[in-house]
Design a protein that fits this description.
Layout (H helix, E strand, L loop, with lengths): L8 E3 L7 E7 L5 E8 L2 E17 L2 E17 L2 E17 L2 E6 L12 E5 L4 E6 L6 E6 L3
Parallel strand pairs: 3-4, 4-5, 5-6, 6-7, 6-8, 7-9
Antiparallel strand pairs: 1-4, 2-3, 9-10
Length: 145
Amino acid sequence: MRVVYPVACLVSTNLMSCFRYVCENDDEGRPICGVFIGKCNKCTVLIKGKSKNVTISGCTDVSVLVDNCVTTIEIVNCKKVNVQAAEACGTFTVDKSDRVKLYLADGSCKGDLSTLVYTSASTSSNVYFSTADGEDQVEYAVPER
């Protein structure tokens, strides 16, 4: 059943022309939203709560902070994008993008939880996550393909 709810997103500028979302109910009746951000320049998007998937397409100099993403954060044809998952994210997909920084949540790197990063035709991408003691941040460069 597809029901439209007001999404809990905070946007730093007026992005309604490039910002779309679809909300559905989960098993407990709470809305889970799929978010699309396209052709945005120099902005910050905060997505509060649980989201099903996030797609960032054709953006330049954009920062996105997601509380919890159930499936995938997809970055396509972007330049200079920062993406941070505050609680958890299952998969990051980076395609035809330059200078992408992915900040993993502490919960995504511990125990049985793991985050997958897939890249294709991307350059200068880096993955950041906290060390086991939480004092420092480790940076891994993603190989160019």
